Structure formats: C-alpha cells, structure tokens
Amino acid sequence: MPTSICPECDEEVYVDAEIEQGDRVSCDECGAQLVIVGLDPIEMDLYEETEPDDKDAGAPDAHVYLEPTAAEALDDKVLDAEVDGNNIGFALLDASEPPPPSENGTGPTV
User: Fold this and answer.
1) Is 22 helix (H, G, I), strand (E, B) or coil?
2) For the chain, first and last CA: distance in Å?
3) Which domains does the chain have, with CATH numbers?
4) pTM of the model
5) What residue ranges of the chain have pLDDT lower than 50?
6) DSSP structure string for 27-68
7) Which of 9, 23, 29, 87 has the fewest CB atoms within 10 Å, i.e. is most exposed?
8) From the CB of residue 97, how many other CB atoms can be counted at a distance below 10 Å?
9) Measuring CA to CA, which residue among 66, 26, 78, 62 is closest to residue 47?
10) What pLDDT digit, counting tens, does each position of 34-65 carry?
C-alpha cells in the first residue's frame, strides 16, 4: 500500500493504490485533512476548505484566499515575498508602482 508523510505531524499516511491527484485523505495520527498534490512520488498538502464567498487573489499555482472585503481593500496591491535563509519576509506594495529590485534579481510581476 502506498504511503506518504503527513505535512502536519510527519507520520506515515497510507493511501489507496487507486488514489488520484486532488483526492482527499485524513491522517490517522493527527486527524489532519489532506489533499493529494502529486502521484510519483505521492505528495500531500493540508486541505483547507474556503468559504463560498472567498476570493482567490493568488496565481494559478499559488492560491491566496481572502474574504471579500479584504480582497476589495487589497485589489490595487501586490504581495512581495523575500527569502533570507530560513526566514520569509513580506511587503505589501502598490500595484501601480514598479516593483523594487531584489537581491536575486526576480522581483514581483505586476
């Protein structure tokens, strides 16, 4: 029986051999709800259900769900992230201004 590691508690999770990407499973150890995001090898991520009126403000491969009022308030903003060793820093920038240069040469796209 195929297995993967629970991203919440790091315990082994057994999955059905017929599992497909997008299927949901739960961890027997911690009870976390998980979604299958990869098949070879089997990868899973925490499954978080969104509210029906939440807005997806992310990119096709990185979703960010916001409440409608927050989405409206942030509509003209860009979220920038910078990795520094094991730390991640975030900045909220105006979308109308060009992004600042970054150390690795890849600033946010607007």
Assistant:
1) coil
2) 45
3) 3-46 (2.20.28.160), 51-110 (no CATH)
4) 0.47
5) 110
6) -TTT--EEEEEEETTEEEEE--PPPTT-EE-SBTTB--EE-H
7) 87
8) 9
9) 26
10) 999 999 899 999 987 767 777 776 666 667 77
Tokens of 63: 């979703």
* Of 7, 4, 2, 34, nearest in space to 18 by CA: 2
Q: Which two tokens stand for residue 46?
A: 């925490």
Identity of the residue numbered 103: E
Q: 55 forms bridges with which residues in the sheet?
A: 66
Q: Which two tokens stand for residue 70?
A: 């927050």
DSSP code, position 10: -
Tell me the three state secondary structure of residue 15.
coil
Token pair of 82 as six digits: 């910078």
